[in-house]
User: Which sequence fits this backbone?
């Protein structure tokens, strides 16, 4: 992380502010009530999914509409591994990560033969196929789904509040871990390749970047991370069904909305988009179906007038950058 | 300038899309340190030839070797690592990245260096091409001449042994064109082998040692620039283009 191009005073300030923010949020059980914690936890989980989808679509050019496949795999692995194998929820989460990564590694060679809109449709079809398979397994409750037994839940902590705190902290860790992990990734040499890929795949290929490999590892890594955060989401929900685990609306459409509004191909975009989405939802939820119409209208307006989203607009207009990845050239006398 | 070592040897190269044959039995030899020009009317298969050399497309028949090594089936990426680089006819910058980051990508991945190691060659490529003062501008916001310079800067940042230039002088004013020619001459004089496709003939002819003429995917003539330009078959093809290049 200690890239020499980063001015050290800025760097120290960045670390100090981030640390204060994370500590403040980690102390939320002290200042927020149960509903507040749940809302924050949900924000972290959607922020994580948005950051991950942004890496896929915004950088690696993989416009996936099938990320719900890995949400479902993560959730179901948590439930079935704890119930049928009797392992602890933490082991089940690790198992979910491995299974989602394996599934992604199997899909990738098939889906990568498709490009652009065809890849999008292909990823959706793949997710629907997995969804249908899960509805047909009677041991997993078929279409009705399954619940997490109380004994498993107590494996995390005996009393309810402690349990909720732990899940809250795990979601916070997932959110901050993904944010700073993605930032570190984008500042690394892999990030240089992904950013080049974002801007111009033709030129990237001709300059010696292994595009297939960059896309493959992004796809597999994102699937694994999606599965991890999904296990936490369903650990909180305590119930899963194929319809909720593999929901296109909850796990992909909402996420695409967040990233498009906030700014695709910019890390900050996912943060801004998540904030805007939750503000709209909290203020407009009582409007009923009109709420969806408002969301759709906002998305369309953003796509027409600010194609790089709210953050892309601010960045172009004011030169703002919260998480700068720009590599500065060396000083002239050092060349 | 050129030595006896063979940089690129192409034998019987063929490429067809269905019934349309775009490269027909093309053979050519380029010695290390040479500068070769390829001319021919639009649709003669010039850019296809570059795509075959860089491995973006595969030949149906024929053989390509680079410094004695058979690269006919090598991937585009490994050919880049061996030292074959191209510039694009329409500049292809990484628009959201800075000019410096553009050459950093080229140095880091073209030469397989770490980000830290790639900084020096990336900066040097900018200095050689006169882009250093613009290092921190976004590549999407620079002028056409600068984008053409950046194509060159990115190419040389990969430390190429063979540089393929695809109509790099097109669309520039006369003085911009002269600047670019001076730059290409400098790169060539520093030992890089060059194959250059160009319609702006006076720019091309001021540098190349030898000219190859393509028409309908076939090599129809080859030789030193003066002789080639006087040959009747070339002038019949090139009447229109001479007029175009005169207007710059």
Assistant:
């Amino acid at each position: 992380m200690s890239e020499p191009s980063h001015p050290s005073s800025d760097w120290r300030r960045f670390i100090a502010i981030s640390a204060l923010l994370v500590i403040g949020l980690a102390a939320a059980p002290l200042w927020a009530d149960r509903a507040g914690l749940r809302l924050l936890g949900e924000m972290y989980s959607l922020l994580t999914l948005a950051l991950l989808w942004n890496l896929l679509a915004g950088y690696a050019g993989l416009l996936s509409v099938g990320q719900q496949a890995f949400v479902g795999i993560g959730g179901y692995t948590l439930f079935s591994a704890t119930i049928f194998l009797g392992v602890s929820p933490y082991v089940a989460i690790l198992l979910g990560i491995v299974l989602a990564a394996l599934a992604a590694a199997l899909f990738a060679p098939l889906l990568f033969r498709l490009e652009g809109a065809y890849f999008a449709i292909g990823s959706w079809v793949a997710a629907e196929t997995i969804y249908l398979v899960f509805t047909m397994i009677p041991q997993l409750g078929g279409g009705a789904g399954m619940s997490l037994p109380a004994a498993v839940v107590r494996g995390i902590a005996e009393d309810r509040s402690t349990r909720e705190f732990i899940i809250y902290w795990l979601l916070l860790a997932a959110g901050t871990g993904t944010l700073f992990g993605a930032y570190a990734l984008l500042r690394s040499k892999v990030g240089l390749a992904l950013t080049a890929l974002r801007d111009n795949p033709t030129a990237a290929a001709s300059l010696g970047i292994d595009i297939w490999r960059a896309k493959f590892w992004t796809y597999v890594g994102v699937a694994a991370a999606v599965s991890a955060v999904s296990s936490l989401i369903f650990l909180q929900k305590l119930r899963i069904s194929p319809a909720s685990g593999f929901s296109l609306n909850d796990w992909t459409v909402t996420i695409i909305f967040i990233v498009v509004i906030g700014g695709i191909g910019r890390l900050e975009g996912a943060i801004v988009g998540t904030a805007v989405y939750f503000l709209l939802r909290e203020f407009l939820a009582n409007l009923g179906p009109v709420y969806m119409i408002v969301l759709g209208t906002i998305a369309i307006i953003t796509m027409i007038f600010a194609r790089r989203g709210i953050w892309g607009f601010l960045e172009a207009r004011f030169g703002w950058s919260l998480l700068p990845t720009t590599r500065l050239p060396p000083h002239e006398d050092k060349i | 300038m050129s030595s006896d070592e063979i940089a690129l040897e192409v034998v019987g190269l063929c490429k067809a899309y269905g019934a349309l044959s775009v490269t027909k039995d093309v053979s050519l030899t380029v010695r290390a340190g040479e500068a070769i020009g390829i001319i021919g009317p639009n649709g003669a298969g010039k850019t296809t030839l570059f795509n075959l050399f860089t491995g973006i497309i595969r030949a149906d028949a024929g053989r390509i070797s680079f410094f004695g090594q058979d690269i006919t089936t090598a991937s585009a990426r490994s050919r880049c690592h061996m030292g074959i680089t191209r510039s694009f006819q329409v500049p292809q910058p990484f628009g959201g990245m800075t000019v410096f980051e553009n050459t950093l990508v080229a140095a880091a991945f073209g030469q397989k260096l770490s980000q830290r190691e790639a900084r020096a060659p990336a900066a040097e490529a900018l200095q050689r091409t006169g882009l250093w003062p613009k290092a921190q501008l976004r590549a999407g916001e620079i002028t056409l001449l600068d984008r053409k310079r950046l194509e060159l800067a990115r190419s040389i940042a990969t430390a190429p042994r063979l540089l393929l230039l695809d109509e790099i002088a097109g669309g520039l004013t006369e003085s911009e064109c002269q600047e670019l020619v001076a730059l290409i001459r400098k790169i060539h004089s520093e030992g890089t082998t060059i194959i250059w496709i160009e319609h702006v003939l006076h720019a091309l002819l001021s540098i190349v040692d030898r000219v190859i003429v393509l028409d309908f995917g076939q090599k129809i003539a080859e030789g030193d620039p003066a002789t080639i330009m006087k040959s009747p078959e070339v002038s019949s093809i090139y009447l229109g283009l001479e007029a175009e290049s005169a207007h710059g």
User: Anything to note?
Assistant: Chain A touches chain B through 28 residues (CB under 8 Å).
